[in-house]
Amino acid sequence: MKLSIDGRTAYAYSGGKPLDPALPGIVFIHGALHDHSVWIQQTRYLAHHGHAVLAVDLPGHGRSEGPPLSVVDASRWIVDLVDAAGLQRVALAGHSMGSLIALEAAARLGERARHLFMVGTAYPMRVSDALLDLCRRDVRAAIDLVNNLSISTHAGKPSSPGPGFDLHGGNGALMRRMQAGWTGGNLFEHDFRACDAYDGLAAAAPRVRCGTTLILGTRDQMTAPRAVAPVVEALQPQVVQLQAGHALMNEVPDAVLNALVQALDTASTPQAR
Fold first, then answer.
1. Does 270 fall in a domain?
2. What backbone phi and psi angles, to 5 degrees, belong to 115?
3. Residue 153: what pLDDT?
4. How many domains would you assign to the chain?
5. For the segment 254-272, what is each residue's pLDDT rounded down to a tens digit?
């Protein structure tokens, strides 16, 4: 579906069902050089099981207009999108860069946030100078490197999207399409710099008024599970560890979905922190 934010088109996938603002809402936020499609299995299930689903394309990515944003500015955009869609209370699920945006959005929404999911997260989410330099010099090589580091298997199990699909090939194609789709600069470098620059955990955490779940891959080479200690200390979350790399939603889609559903089942009322 398409919404209007500040006079620009904002696109969000509703899981194959018309959005019903009366249902419990959940917003999915992708990571660097991705779009809404990384959440396809989880969004379709939840949309067909009693949830109002919005899986966004962030500005500059996919079908949403406008320049790409910083983590903080993207969180404001998410809140504006929630308001434009008519949703009153929402859960927020973000992957990698999107997990930082979800954190900031949950802080801004206060009691309107019913649960926060941070998937494949870390804090601080530093990006090495060598990788930033590679992004500037040879973005295709940087995409190939990050794609290989993000996926820990060549043969993900069903059901997303199913047997016979190449996780590496599909993710690489998506990243190349996102890079080519924004003609205003180097989108991959922008997204990495947005992750690297974010330092808002200490300010955001006390304003998060809902429960939090971290969903981490034990084989993650992009955001290592050991790098979440500041998040655990600040938010006191539930931590779910899955046998996967950074691309958890594609490698272990059903396990990610199960973690979402289990936490959402306990999030029907606000949880004071």
1. no
2. -165, 150
3. 84
4. 1
5. 999 999 999 999 876 444 3
